[in-house]
């Protein structure tokens, strides 16, 4: 899987997890101390997030880090 494809798939997975909670991008942003634009870029595969950012998002979504990055 290419880097670009990985970022896009990760973004789609985050969208799915966020929507399962019934959250907007703004809700997720507030829960992990990010701005909505940062979440939007992440969900659209425009950024390569740090491990710490992924951990913050996993914690906000109440999932484990392995579950967050499980794209299989």
Automatic annotation (TrEMBL):
Xref: PROSITE patterns: HTH_CROC1
CDD domains (UniProt xref): HTH_XRE
Gene3D superfamilies: lambda repressor-like DNA-binding domains (1.10.260.40)
Calcium keyword on record: no
UniProt-listed Pfam families: HTH_3 (PF01381)
UniProt keyword list: DNA-binding, Transcription, Transcription regulation
GO CC annotation: cytosol
HTH cro/C1-type domain residues: 14-68
Family annotation (InterPro entries): Cro/C1-type_HTH (IPR001387), Lambda_DNA-bd_dom_sf (IPR010982), TransReg_Diox_bact_type (IPR050807)
One function term, GO molecular function aspect: DNA-binding transcription factor activity
Transcription regulation as UniProt keyword: yes
PANTHER family per the UniProt record, alphabetical: HTH-TYPE TRANSCRIPTIONAL REGULATOR, HTH-TYPE TRANSCRIPTIONAL REGULATOR SUTR
Protein name: Antitoxin HipB
Gene: hipB
């Amino acid at each position: 899987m290419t880097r670009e494809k990985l970022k896009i798939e990760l973004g789609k997975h985050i969208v799915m997890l966020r929507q399962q909670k019934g959250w907007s991008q703004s809700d997720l942003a507030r829960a992990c101390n990010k701005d909505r634009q940062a979440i939007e870029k992440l969900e659209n595969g425009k950024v390569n997030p740090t491990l710490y950012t992924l951990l913050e998002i996993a914690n906000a979504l109440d999932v484990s880090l392995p579950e967050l990055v499980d794209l299989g």
